Amino acid sequence: MTPGIQQPNPPIGENPIGEELAADLASAALGLARRFHAGATLWVVSPQWEPHAHHVAVEFVHPVIMGKRALPAVSLVEPDPVSQCRVASRPGDVILAVAAAGEPDVLDIVRRAAAWGTDTIWIGAGPRPPAGAATHVLWVDSSDPMVPATGRFVLLYHLLWELTHVVFEHPGLLTADDPADAVCVTCSDEGRLAEVVSAPGTASATALARTADGTEHVDVSILESVAVHDLLVVHGGVALARLDVPATPGTR
Description:
2 domains; five-stranded parallel sheet
């Protein structure tokens, strides 16, 4: 039992998992199982509620049911979770956040995740994060500020763990569809997100950037200035725009 967090015990007659959330859970479990199958590590952050980060990691790494596999999961609880995720994550990994929609570090993590090549799962309650903010959003539609302490989040990641193992019991589900067609028919390169690793020198028009495929040199000549950790939209090896404005909380 996680200290300070009550275990799931919804009132009699109340269904804590509605149809929409159940579908979101199934989708997240399928995606997570496929990532684990391919060798992913799950990185867990919860800047507001650190015990949740520890609890999620323990759920996945500790095979509490006979015959279930231990899955690689690590909680990241240092003061700068963005830098921790940047350094720790590798393409194909998954970052899971337990946080409110307005948590600034989580907003920054999910907007950079595509450049790092990671999927994201966001568990929270109250006002929803922006549409499409994370790969999977598992949200409790409640304005009760005590939701994080009532066990509703615990129930969500317990179910996510169990459903992930259900997917493992059906090996045919572990192969993802081939997304090869989702590219530009002219240059065979989609618009990708890249995070600047090394800014261009005074006599250079290229920057070293990190993408889901690794690091590469990107032509930044059409941008006024580029700095380390800037997020760029890259197409055909050219940076078309810099994403300067952080995401903000909104409605689904």
